[in-house]
Amino acid sequence: MCEICGASWERVIEKIKANQDTIIKTVGWRPTCSCKNEGKGKSIVLDPFMGSGTTALVAFEHERNYLGIELNPEYIKLANRRLERRKRQGLQVSLL
Ligand SMILES: C[S@@+](CC[C@H](N)C(=O)[O-])C[C@H]1O[C@@H](n2cnc3c(N)ncnc32)[C@H](O)[C@@H]1O
Q: Is the CB of 55 under 6 A from ligand 1?
């Protein structure tokens, strides 16, 4: 979110047609305000349904802090593995 006006960021999506279905893929995030503030490092992305950690990866790629909640222990392991792998590749990730 913007640390000046508090406006949230929104997903940038790509719609991919596959037969009858449309797959929606998140390809990035963008501000919804015109403050020209990147807000890096200060805001926290709260993800109450962490799943395999895609939102977490995108948050860290945009230098945000991230707090994820997940019910299923198997998904937690999967998300941690994905984040550890990206960390080894140089992404700034701090896991608690
Ligand atoms: C569609 S996935 C979330 C995808 C995720 N936001 C991402 O970026 O990859 C939904 C997840 O929410 C989890 N979930 C469902 N109910 C929950 C609850 N009450 N508390 C925490 N996690 C829950 C499920 O286990 C599942 O992994």
A: yes
The β-bridge relationship of strands 44-47 and 21-31 is unpaired
Helix axes 54-61, 73-88, angle to 10 degrees: 30
Whether 83 is in the pocket of ligand 1, judged by its Cβ within 6 Å, is no
Both tokens assigned to 26: 């998140």
Each residue's pLDDT tens digit, 14-54: 999 988 999 999 999 888 999 877 656 567 889 999 999 99
Nearest partner of 83 among 1, 27, 59, 38, judged by Cα: 59
The contacts of residue 96 (CB under 8 Å, 6+ apart) are none
